[in-house]
Amino acid sequence: MNKRVMLCGIDCHHGDKNCNGYCTGNAAHPPESTPEQDLLSARSMAHEKLREAERAWHKYFALCEVGDERTRASEVVDRLRHATAR
User: Fold this and answer.
1) pLDDT of 86 over the 60 cut
2) pLDDT-based confidence at residue 5 (cuts at 50, 70, 90)
């Protein structure tokens, strides 16, 4: 996996432990993310995509006629909701 470059003012701020001085010209390259930051970022992205999937399935559910397909969509929405309830 490639290292993620941190953005000055977003991922790090001048003077904090993640800052290498790139934004002030004291380093040739921007700082790279730590494994912990990569893990938190991946977890956040996974939760975001799960919420997007829940919204998409709920929209599909709402458009379905009463019947087997609507019941199946309802079950998927319910599973997605429970997956994020941790």
Assistant:
1) no
2) low
What tokens does 57 get?
Answer: 């399935």
Q: Kindly report the backbone phi and psi dihedral angles of residue 53, in degrees, each rounded to the nearest multiple of 5, phi listed first.
A: -65, -40
Give the chain's length: 86
DSSP H stretches of helix in 1-86: 35-63, 68-83
Q: Tokens in use for 79?
A: 């599973």
Q: Are 36 and 30 in contact (CB under 8 A)?
A: no
The pLDDT tens digits of the residues spanning 28-48 come to 777 777 788 788 888 989 999
Query: What sign results for the dihedral spanned by CA atoms 45, 51, 54, 58?
Result: negative
The tally of CA atoms less than 13 A away on the side-chain side of residue 49 is 6
